[in-house]
Amino acid sequence: MSFLEQLQSIIPAERVLQDEPLSAHTYTKLGGKADYFVAPHTYEEVQVVLELAHQEAMPFMILGFGSNLIVRDGGIRGVVLNLNELNTIRREGNRIVAQAGAAIIDVSRQALAEGLSGLEFACGIPGTVGGAVYMNAGAYGGETKDVITSATVLTSDGQVLHLSKDELELDYRTSRVSKEGFIVLEATFELEPKNYELIKEVMDDLTYKRESKQPLEYPSCGSVFKRPPGYFAGKLIQDSGLQGKRIGGAEVSLKHAGFIVNIAEATATEYISLIRHVQATVKEKFEVELEPEVKIIGEDIAVENA
Q1: How many angstroms separate the CA atoms of 223 and 232, rounded?
Q2: Which 8-state DSSP code applies to residue 94?
Q3: pLDDT, tens digit, 9 for 90 and up, residues 120-153
Q4: How far are the Cα atoms of 35, 96, 110, 145, 147 from residue 123, in angstroms, in the given order?
Q5: Is 173 among the catalytic positions?
Q6: Which partner from 74, 89, 259, 260 sits 20 to 30 angstroms from 290, CA to CA?
């Protein structure tokens, strides 16, 4: 039995795709094909796919909304697990429990509807709960670590762990999840009761700031670089005269220099080349190393020898 047939024996065939273009699943609209693209609907399905991948020595990775990710043009070998259907959100007292595939924006909106404060900062973060935990996502002075109390994760060998906030080791754009390759299944957030209108006022203000300052009209991976100590990445890029710089269809945004936008069907190779050019230019002008916040994965397109 082929690997595809084995997958389809445990996951309904319509949720197992072969040679699926990942450009259809990333915010940048970049990326080659996944060998196998699988959409589990339950934690048990995640576990059995993981077990099969191990049994067959097949590499695997997790994909949420692909909002902080660049997939190279050669795509991804092995299995790409898309957890977006694991998206339930529920209230438990002053806590919100959300599955890994739920949009963190939707969790912040649910908190608003429940009159619970603490997730206002997440009202514009275009990622999943799993992604938020993986990289300790944050914005406008708030971070995931400020409100999370625990998470349920799956280890690479299929073991389920319930990790406390301290055990998650959340730091600036990193976590134990990212370091050890765990798969987030769900997370619990501790919030505080507050007047609905006061929460909404903060969220409306943050939404206005985001929409007025960020180039949301074009595909992008969001903020490309981590904040270097003592500096702002966008200001360094702007002061380097790089706004409007293009390589192929990728451009340093004229609206916000911290963003690189896909304005004309860019390839991942062009997008990554522009990232490297920005890094080299800022290093030359200011002696500051810009470290990407975005994760770059996958393979380059093989070039045949003439």
Answers
A1: 11
A2: T
A3: 999 999 999 999 999 999 999 999 999 999 999 9
A4: 34, 15, 10, 16, 14
A5: yes
A6: 74
